[in-house]
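Field: sequence (string)
Field: structure_tokens (string)

Example rows 1 and 2, in order.
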Amino acid sequence: MDELKNKVIQLTKEMGMDLCGVADTDIVNEKAPPGFTPEDQLPDAKSVVIFAQRLPSGSFFATPGTLRENYYMRSFWTNFHLMNQTSFQLARLLEEESGYPSLQIPANEPLRIHDGKPRGMVSLKHIGQLAGIGSIAMNSLLVHPEHGNLLRLGGVITRAPLPPDTPVTEDPCPDGCDTCIKACPVGAIKDHSIDIKSCMKLSLRHPMLQPYIFSKFLFYLSTRSATVHRIVEDIANMLVSQYSESCTKCLVACRHFKTALKQAQKKKKKEAARD
């Protein structure tokens, strides 16, 4: 399976990805909540391939008052489209080369509701840590030594037993660092986790209404019964197709955002020196 893994990595590079890693589903299944494991999505799955691409940083520096979040979300949606294309092609490659069923993981939707909170079918960032892509910072973003916190993720669940990469275990945040905590206007960051409802109250926008007003009621309803829960998920997925984010303060304040910019500049200088 080493040769197949090399083909997987090569394909992700050809699709414009910066990083690629593999996680063992046995480890992921132990850590993920019921209903959100690779096994729940594809029975008898053996591996999860996670790939990552760095977003361009320019949208975070756009002039205030120019609907800056629109630039950011345009990068987001363009990336989502490419991630879905990559996972589709990767699933095809795995099936053609190994014969094992392979399932592309949606990059952004559909969403599921768990404990009254929205989440993806599986947690790409947590599987990314187990696949050696990076580690989870205080603000719950996946960070990488070179690409910082600008990575966005995609993946494929497969029954092919690919050689797994070594999980990242170290904490990327220095002792006592609370920069992102101080930067958050609503105090949503606590101990490597996000109070998603508080975050949504400020950061999400939708052309129909302020999403928090509607979503707070929907998420409450989702706890009432299984039938209502499914209806709420359907409504949430209709809303998420048009949302935008208006706050990225914790991301920009983080030292790993600055690291990504510095590493990109160093890389460019090295390339110029070689030329």
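Row 2 begins here:
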Amino acid sequence: MKGMLNTNWLNMTPVRQKDLALCRLIVFAVCALMICGLLGGCGGGSIGTGAESSFTVSGTVETKDGAAVAGAEVSVSGMQEVVVTDANGLFVFNTSIPADRLLDIQISYSGANGRLMLSDIPNDAAEVTVMFQLNEQQTAIAAQSFEYRRDDGAVIEVPSASPSPTPAAQPGATPEAACVDDCGDGICAEVVCLAVGCPCAENASSCPSDCQAAPPATLPEEPACVDDCGDGICAEVVCLALGCPCAEDADSCPADCGIVYGD
């Protein structure tokens, strides 16, 4: 059989031999591609898992009373584009999700700053909608809520954005604080950002030195009348205004009003 195959190969014309070699090369390439696909990629990394995907960031910025904040600047860390909220406090722009699924949204308005760190963004998320709020003192902006949506507009259920319990510290490790304790700086930080390293929220119970109302200032008590006892005049009848002499009699001022007996 081997001799027959060799004989057949030798009996083929050069064109026929080229065609047969090309067919074998095509079959080998197809098999190699199929094997690469089954293994998740060949040499160039995984297929479709490390690439950045298109993503929409939208939302609103408003005050604590619900009024729209126009002119706030919103951006994503690492992206040059900055969008400005319109008259209704709305903003929207397109970006991409990095391979680490981490997005740092930053916002500023008239000296007030804030940020929202999104981590573990769902793989099927096409958009995130954020509601930012400017505090009453207009010194800070904090994210109040956010939600992910798919391409079809369906909301993706995710765990709450509230801080998660701090894991147990490993021996020799220094635990990282979820927020920075600024109690005592004279500013009552009622609304803060949600990222690690932001100030801790304060109120009258957690930080009375910053959030408790200062007692009203008391003026020194002014005397109702002027004590003129000893001036030699018994002022039995006086005016009633502040600064008038105090009324005197034999009991209150015997020096001026006492009975003087003759020699």
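free_text_note (row 2): The radius of gyration is 42 Å.
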